[in-house]
Design brief:
The protein is α/β, with parallel strands linked by helices. It has 15 helices and five strands. It binds zinc ion (ZN).
Length: 327
């Protein structure tokens, strides 16, 4: 894994590579961001660059150290995660890691350890890590990965250099998904729903998602203020728990964003597999009207996030979407 393999996060890469060139890497890093945004890859790129015997600020990919890291069996790298069937990272796991860091590295200039997800360290484990973070034995490098730095003890946070990883852009996500073997069509379908995370995109169930999109587009197409049942029925069918409703609203946002693009004369849309339905959405209203709808959907999303009743929120939104649909 070299820095060149990481998509996005340009500033973070720049800062890390500069510190490698200056020989001023920190002892302890905290990488915060959604799973699947590139935190782990960046952690491995940093370690590989540090261990590489050829290049100073990146991995060459061909030296013995780089090859061992790529094949996942470099003896000086440890990853600590909760053991199978355990919720937390235990203090015993931390102690075993500390004992190991105290030994001389086998072949690298120093040892390295990734703790993922760091927020799952038990309080005892986190407390036992404090001294290691302050004075890592043998100059070891420790990288903590977390989705939310706020969930860590402030004493752990303050001992690490923090980098915040933004969710991946749609463009980068599409590239990574096709690199992961998805067809361009599947990638285009999943990416808008994935919140900037490769992992989440790969977890989404493609088939049920296709069915749900079709159901959403067909229900929204039928909304009609003169037949109020179309509104309540659609809200009934499409609302669910908060997470499901947010997923629906993300879909609607994605559809109406595309409708706005089409309305503005930009044919390049994300949901290409539903182009016909989206052209219909775009043609029903003027561009400013579709922009207003986009704002209404965003507002509903914020309300549901703040725990508004999903069904009532959708009833209200669907009335706004119905206004303007031809009867
Ligand atoms: Zn190398």
């Amino acid at each position: 894994m070299s820095f060149a393999d990481i998509l996005g996060h340009d500033r973070i890469r720049e800062v890390l590579q500069r510190s490698l060139r200056n020989g001023k890497t920190a002892h302890s890093y905290l990488f915060e961001g959604v799973c699947g945004s590139g935190r782990g890859k960046t952690a491995r790129a940093l370690i590989q660059a540090l261990f590489c015997t050829v290049l100073g600020d990146d991995a060459c990919g061909t030296c013995s150290s780089c090859r061992k890291i790529a094949s996942g069996n470099h003896p000086d790298i440890h990853t600590i995660s909760p053991l199978p069937d355990k919720r937390d990272i235990s203090i015993e796991q931390l102690r075993a890691m500390q004992r190991d860091l105290a030994l001389r590295p086998y072949e690298a200039p120093r040892k390295a350890c990734i703790i993922d997800p760091a927020e799952r360290m038990s309080v005892g484990a986190a407390n036992s890590l404090l001294k290691t973070l302050e004075e890592p034995p043998g100059n070891a490098l420790i990288i903590l990965l977390t989705e939310n730095a706020g969930l860590l003890l402030s004493t752990v946070r303050s001992r690490c250099q923090l980098f915040r990883f933004a969710p991946l852009s749609l463009e980068h996500l599409l590239t990574l998904l096709t690199q992961n073997g998805l067809s361009p069509e599947s990638a285009a379908l999943l990416a808008p729903m994935a919140g900037g995370s490769v992992q989440k995109a790969l977890e989404l169930d493609n088939e049920s998602l296709v069915a749900r999109r079709e159901s959403v587009l067909s229900n929204v197409g039928k909304l009609n203020l003169n037949r109020i049942a179309t509104i309540f029925d659609a809200a009934e069918e499409l609302s669910g728990n908060r997470e499901k409703t947010l997923e629906l609203l993300d879909m609607l946002l994605s559809f109406y964003r595309d409708a706005v693009h089409l309305g503005a004369g930009n044919a390049d849309i994300v949901n290409g597999s539903s182009r016909r339905e989206i052209e219909l959405l775009a043609s029903r209203r003027s561009l400013p009207k579709n922009l207003e709808l986009l704002e209404a959907i965003s507002e509903t999303r914020r309300a549901v996030q703040r725990n508004a009743n999903s069904k009532l929120a959708l009833d209200h939104l669907f009335m706004i979407l119905a206004d303007g649909n031809k009867s």
